[in-house]
Amino acid sequence: MLTDPQLAAIAESPYKADFPLLVQNPQIAFLDSAATAQRPAAVLDAQRTFYETMNANPLRGLYRLSVAATSAIEDARGRIARFIGAIDEKGEPQASQIVFTRNTSESLNLVANTLGRQVVLGEGDEVVISIMEHHSNLIPWQQLCRETGARLVYLRMDEDFRITQQEIDEKIGPKAKIVSVTHVSNVLGVENDVAAIARRAHEMGAYMVVDGAQSVPHIGVDVRELDCDLLAFSAHKLGGPMGIGVLWGKADVLDAMPPFLTGGEMIDSVTETDAVWAPVPQKFEAGTQDAAGSFATDAAIAYLESLGMEAVEGRERALATYLTDSLAALDFVDVIGPTDGSRHIGAVSFDVHGVHPHDVSSILDASDVCIRAGHHCAQPLLTELGYQSTCRASVAFYNDKADVDRLVEGLKMVWQVFNGR
After folding, report:
1. CA 57 and chain centroid, separation
2. Is 377:135 a contact under the CB 8 Å cutoff?
3. Catalytic entry in 228, 370, 377, 391
4. What number is the average pLDDT over the span 351-365?
5. What whole-number distance in Å separates Cα of residue 172 and Cα of residue 154?
6. Which residues contact 407 (CB under 8 A, 6 or more apart)?
7. C-alpha closest to that of 96 among 287, 247, 237
8. 252 to each of 89, 207, 248, how far by Cα in Å?
9. Count of helices and strands (H, E) across the chain
10. Model confidence at 103: pLDDT above 90
11. At what angle do helices 139-148 and 104-111 cross, to 10 degrees?
12. Could you give the C-alpha distances from 268 to 83, 258, 279, in angstroms and in order?
């Protein structure tokens, strides 16, 4: 339960004024930030500024506009690297370790189809993932194991929705070559002990890959503390534009990986019979990149940095606790996941007794309450939990107590519609 000062702290949001969609639609209670975040004005302005002041193809011209566009992308790499703790011994950001993709899904597919397919996996090897994985961190490995003869092994949760050290030690053995795990579940909102998983993976000689789509926007992430080899996340979940993803990797790992796509700007030289690849990160960035999106992603991270990730995390944990407690107080609702709301990072899934999640979402929409309904691209997890689909409400720092209260009132209306009381 929250204390009175904690409740007072989330009574109103000082941040909604920074988000044009929320300003223009004050009636909306947006509780689907796990799917995509709202964009602050600073991000929208940055994208427009790029096209108005430096619209040129980066890396491909020596004139002023192209140089400015190139600098914008490189500055974004540096800010992103610092944001996730990818810094060297002198505290300088390791910008060359930041690869731009379209989204987390593409980043993870890149890893599976380069590190997995061409560098590591063979008959009898093992890829270890968790039962919590989003399909983006499941299907690429599933397909790759089928093609190579490797085996897919699942880390499973205990009754408290944790992956225990015993499970880690039993499932990650000497045959493991790649361990790829979500940092935070997009269904349960729980954080996995990635550092412990990485420690075991490295003891067994395996690479550690992390899906950070649901962690990087909400909590401080330091790749050095996680001790992972590769980390993937998306800009749109942290207030940046859609269509931009990030893959960070240790320099030696990225250097060992062959390119995923081929074409312009990812080569050093080409002959009629062969090609020499450009160095990382250009090796993985074939064709024209979304330079405006990268510039706007820089702005999104700068905005989060101005708030302070500790403040963001603290506010969101308070909101998630209030959300969990409010849902648990309804006798016709089951919270799916920990009953301790502070363990939910952003997302809280739930079930309304006897009412399909799609009906719940549709009725709530009539009251301008936005939640998610479905399998959340995590069908094996829902099967493990005994559900085909669930409702999911997810908070961000720009939410406030009133948003959660409107959800609760909407759920009471849903119950009345289907039960007449």
Report:
1. 28
2. yes
3. 377
4. 97
5. 9
6. 29, 31, 323, 326, 364, 369, 371, 393
7. 247
8. 16, 12, 12
9. 15, 15
10. yes
11. 20
12. 30, 14, 8
This prediction has a pTM of 0.96
Report the pLDDT value the prediction gives residue 421, as an integer from 0 to 100. Answer: 63
DSSP 12: S
Residues 188-206 pLDDT 10s = 999 999 999 999 999 999 9
Please, are residues 145 and 152 in contact by the beta-carbon 8 Å criterion?
yes
Q: What is the DSSP letter of 25?
A: -
Dist. CA 382–CA 213, nearest whole Å: 19
The residue to which tokens 């009636």 are assigned:
27
* Listed ranges 48-57, 165-174, 282-291; the one with the highest mean pLDDT: 165-174
Q: Which domains does the chain have, with CATH numbers?
A: 4-30+309-419 (3.90.1150.10), 47-305 (3.40.640.10)
Tell me, yes or no, if 377 is annotated catalytic. Answer: yes
Tokens of 219: 């909590």
CA-to-CA distance for 417 and 335, rounded, in angstroms?
21
> Distance between CA atoms of 89 and 233, rounded to whole angstroms?
24
For residues 76 and 237, what is the distance between their CA atoms, to the nearest angstrom?
17
**Which residues make Cβ contacts (< 8 Å) with residue 145, sequence separation at least 6?**
121, 127, 151, 152
CB 382 within 8 A of CB 390: yes
The single residue listed with the structure tokens 């499970």 is 167
* Average pLDDT of every residue of the chain: 96
